[in-house]
Amino acid sequence: MDLGNLGAILGQYVNASPEAPPPGVEEHYQQVAGNSSPPQLAAGLADAFRSQATPPFSEMMRTLFSNSNGEQRAGILNQLLPAVGPALLASGGLSIAGLLHGGKPAVTAEEANLVPPEEVQHLAEHAQKQNPSIVDQASEFYSHHPTLVKCWAPDRWP
Predict the structure, then answer these.
(1) pTM for the full model?
(2) Pairing with 4, which of 35, 50, 79, 100 sits 20 to 30 Å away (CA)?
C-alpha cells in the first residue's frame, strides 16, 4: 500500500467517532494492519489505549482478553502481573494471585483460561496506576496479534 492510499484511508477517520465510523472499517483495518510493521501497529494501539475517545485501558484489556485464545490470554497476563507489583497480588483480592505461587515464572494457557475477564480489567486498572508503561507493553504484545485487535472495533466495544 502506498502512502497515498494509506492517507486516503486514514483521512476518513479524522472527524469520525465510535458512534459514526466511516463505512468499511473492517476492510480499512485489514489494509492498514496488513501493511504496517508491529512497531507501527503498537504505536497506533498505544494511542488508542490512551485516547479520551475510547473506553478506559482496563475495559479494552477485558474485551481483548475475552476474545483471546489461551496462549494470548497467558501472554497478556504475563505482561500485566509483574506491572502491578507484589502488594496487590499479596492482598488476596484477586484469584489471579494464586497463579504465580511458589515462585512460578509464568501463567500457562490452561491457567489463563480460568481467569475471569473482570479480574483482568481490575488487574489492568491497577497495573496502569502502578506502571503507566504497561500501556506500551500491552500495545507491543497486541501488535503481534492484529487479527485479535480487529475484534476490538468500535461497534464491538462493551
Answers:
(1) 0.77
(2) 50
